Amino acid sequence: MKRLLLGSLFVCLAVSAASATEDPIATRKKLMDANGAAAGAAVAMIKGEIPFDAKVAMAALQAFNSVSYAFGDYFPEGSDKGNTSASPKIWTDRAGFEKMLSQFRADTEAAVKSKPQDLDALKAAMTTIGKDCGACHETYRLKKS
């Protein structure tokens, strides 16, 4: 199970990197898929659905951190058109968007550096990361209808 979770995280990141130059919208979606896989593994441990494993926790936190560095590069002008849930506010409030990405990057770096060795430490890291994700989605993601 552990290998499957770790493999899923890294496959998502590898696929994202491979298609980075082809389609920024598809790349953004793949990076969000990587975040979703990381969140799924972390939340499963927090909920007790799978046992806590420090290696899996670190892989999830490292995936979030990797995405934090790549994600902002895939919002070039014109990529607000098409099959995307990115809010136009990203392009009209670029400074605010970049500030949120910077905060997410700082928080994921701190989480990785903390090297959570138990469930309580993972919960603390994920609480902060979850707040970052929620704030960005609330502000810079279109609501699903």
Report on the structure:
By secondary structure, this protein is mainly alpha-helical. It has a single domain, classed as Cytochrome c/b562 (Four Helix Bundle (Hemerythrin (Met), subunit A), Up-down Bundle). It has six helices and no strands. Helix 1 (2-18) packs antiparallel against helix 2, helix 1 packs parallel to helix 3 and helix 2 packs antiparallel against helix 6. The longest helix has 23 residues, at 24-46. It is elongated, with a radius of gyration of 15 Å. The model has no long low-confidence stretch (mean pLDDT 90).
- General shape: elongated
Number of domains: 1
Helix coverage percent of residues?
Answer: over 70%
Largest sheet: none
Under CATH, the homologous superfamily reads Cytochrome c/b562
Class derived from helix and strand content: mainly alpha
The fraction of residues in strands falls at under 5%
What do the pLDDT scores average to?
90
Report the C-alpha radius of gyration, rounded: 15 Å
Under CATH, the topology can be stated as Four Helix Bundle (Hemerythrin (Met), subunit A)
CATH architecture: Up-down Bundle
Number of H/I helices? 6
**What order do the SSEs take from the amino end to the carboxyl end, as H and E?**
HHHHHH
Tell me how many strands there are: 0
Cα end-to-end separation: 35 Å
Detail the poorly predicted runs.
Answer: none
User: Tell me, what is the CATH class?
Assistant: Mainly Alpha
